[in-house]
Specification:
Layout lengths: L5 E4 L5 H15 L6 H12 L1 H9 L3 E8 L2 E11 L2 E9 L8 H15 L4 E7 L3 H9 L3 E11 L2 E11 L1
Parallel strand pairs: 4-5
Antiparallel strand pairs: 1-2, 2-3, 3-4, 5-7, 6-7
């Protein structure tokens, strides 16, 4: 069953709600994959209000959110990254996962990339996040390479770079 969602761009007044939704989703998804210390560090680094306001002003970044029956249930951030079109963040509230929301957001981002002439969409996913990896494979992504990226304070992102050809 696929939920009928509405996708809209994030606006500055919605930044606190996106930050809060990110925290809820991360707390449900990442314990057991990364430490609580790394969760807190990455949430502040990526979802602090100032960072999100800056992202909204960047012409090479897009912040989209999904609503179902008026409730914000997920979001996707995409950007031009090192000459490629990257799905940088895709998060769906746990109580509506596996209902096609991620697929609809991926399709939305892929359509933007294709319209802009990019041959593929890339993303990074933690190697231990099997649920996300399997979901991305379902939507046509394949593993391109494995990376370990130092993100500061002794933390690393141990990821796969996946790509979906358009």
């Amino acid at each position: 069953m696929s939920l009928n969602i509405e996708i809209k761009p994030v606006t500055p007044p919605e930044v606190p709600a996106i930050s809060s939704l990110a925290r809820d989703i991360w707390q449900a998804s990442y314990p057991g994959i990364i430490t609580q210390e790394q969760i807190d560090f990455m949430l502040e680094q990526r979802y602090g209000h100032e960072r999100l306001y800056d992202d909204l002003e960047d012409a090479h970044k897009w912040l989209d959110q999904a609503f179902y029956e008026g409730r914000r249930i997920g979001f996707a951030f995409s950007e031009i990254y090192k000459g490629e079109f990257k799905l940088d963040k895709l998060y769906i509230h746990p109580d509506v996962q596996r209902k096609g929301v991620g697929g609809q957001l991926i399709a939305h981002v892929a359509a933007r990339a294709a319209k802009m002439g990019y041959p593929c969409v890339i993303l990074a996913v933690n190697k231990r996040n099997e649920k996300a990896i399997n979901s991305y494979k379902k939507y046509g992504f394949v593993v391109r390479e494995a990376i370990v990226d130092d993100i500061g304070r002794g933390f690393v992102m141990d990821d796969y770079i996946m790509e979906k050809k358009l």
